Amino acid sequence: MVQTGAAPDIRALMGVIQEESAFVDLLQNEVGKVIVGQKTMVDRVLIGLLTGGHILLEGVPGLAKTLTVKTVADAIEAQFSRMQFTPDLLPADLTGTLVFDPRKQEFTPKRGPVFANLVLADEINRAPAKVQSALLEAMQERQVTIGDTTYPLPKPFLVLATQNPVEQEGTYPLPEAQTDRFMLHVRITYPTREEERAILDRMAKNDDPQVRPVVDLQRIEQARSVVRSIHSDDKVKDYILDIIWATREPAEAKLADLAGLIEMGASPRASIALDVASRAHAFLKRRPAVFPDDVKAVGPDVLRHRIKLTYEAEAENVKVEDVVQRIFDAVPIP
Q: What would be the CATH architecture of the domain defined by 24-219?
């Protein structure tokens, strides 16, 4: 067990967390009116809300990726926009453009759908590189330039993108340098048999549950400040660094056989993302300090898209999840 230190502060923080996290149950219950199961996906979307980190959701069609994002947006008093990415999409369709006003004889800016608090980029790998770059630039800089004027994006600003891993025809896969902008890359799996039966029973009733807003942006901003104050012990920070460095220098972590399988390890952005996401996970568990279990819970989603494997790994049918799991098994827990 990690020693957290500063017990009086931790106890005070615990009370603040209990108060500020009360909306989480309300939000999860409201989302549960529509979404059956998929707890991990919902939790990861909440982590994005609590940190401002963008989320990439990947899964086969029909797993409620889009529906989950739309339902969360309905349960929050925030601006929401959805963009269906297609091969003929242009950057201006996303960011906006200048429109000529014949009455005033001048060009006026028309803002695009990216100007929202929650932006759903549906099937992001369907759009060409220029559109992807325009979105990813907005994600990183949190601003958009139309003409010669730069406009800040609303606060908070969060992008939730989906992509289909099966169909490759007519798609434009995101390069590693662009996927690195996403804090988490979440793989969505099939529901359990019991959950799918509940889905069938719910759909048979043929009534659409109405989701109402249960939290506003001010409450989320307050929760974000609490997440940033959650204690992370030096031993936990060293644990995070040990994991990240094991992706770059596997031999030093006594994983010499992985050296020929990893072409590129995780960047410093991964260290930051793992620390921030672990704090948010601890917040969802109502804990005032980060534990190694928090790091292990979000670690695969943080590292999945930040480790590039070699051709040798692909030839041996080694998956990035296998490499990440071996690293977590090998790095000692404090």
A: 3-Layer(aba) Sandwich (3.40)
Query: Per-domain residue ranges for the chain?
Result: 24-219, 230-330
Global pTM? 0.86
Kindly report the CATH class assigned to 230-330.
mainly alpha
- Give the Cβ contact number of residue 228 at 10 Å: 13
Lay out the sheet containing 118-122: strands in order across: 80-84, 118-122, 158-163, 55-58, 184-187
pLDDT tens digit string along 175-198?
777 788 899 999 988 888 888 888
Q: What are phi and psi of 54, to 5 degrees?
A: -75, 150
Give tens-digit pLDDT for 41-53: 888 999 998 998 9
pLDDT per residue as tens digits for the range 145-167: 887 888 899 888 899 998 887 76
Q: Rounded CA gap, 174 and 2, in Å?
A: 38
| Percentage helix, strand, coil for the chain under 3-state DSSP, each rounded to 5 | 50, 15, 35
